[in-house]
Amino acid sequence: MHEIRIAEDLSAIVLEAAEREHLSKVTQVNIEFGQMVQIVPDIFRFAFAEAVRDSVADSAIVNIEIIPLRMRCVECGNDFRPVNDSFACDICGSSDLEIIEGKELFVKSIVGD
Fold first, then answer.
1. How many Cα atoms sit within 13 Å of 30 on the Cβ side?
2. What is the DSSP letter of 21?
């Protein structure tokens, strides 16, 4: 359950930003996770709520956007989204691939007063 560690790290970022921006209350946190991070949103929300308990972000709504995996074939240059967990180029069949999108993990925005 790596959600707990990620929630702790991201909560620190949110609380630092809230302090820097002089927010008395964080009402919403928008987070983006790449598909390869393999976050379970409900577990993450629970872990985040625990990490910010009794802080300015105590009752913040957490919105999570999952960024789909996108890959590029090193052999032919084809950009594609894998289907059915098939990690081979859908044009040439090569498995020599690089991830273009899908490993992201960051706070997109913080809303507060």
1. 7
2. T
Are 64 and 46 in contact by the 8 Å Cβ rule? The answer is: no
Other CB atoms within 10 A of residue 88 CB = 15
CA distance 42 to 98: 29
Q: What is the crossing angle of helices 3-20 and 41-51, to 10°?
A: 50
Predicted TM-score (pTM) of the model is 0.85
Amino acid occupying residue 45: R
What pLDDT score was predicted for residue 78? 97
User: Six-digit token pair at 11?
Assistant: 């909560």
Report the sign of the C-alpha dihedral through residues 26, 32, 37, 43, in that order. Answer: positive
pLDDT of 38-73, one tens digit each? Answer: 999 999 999 999 999 999 999 999 999 999 999 999
* Burial group, residue 17, by CB count within 10 angstroms (0-12, 13-18, 19+): middle
- Residue 69 confidence (pLDDT): 95
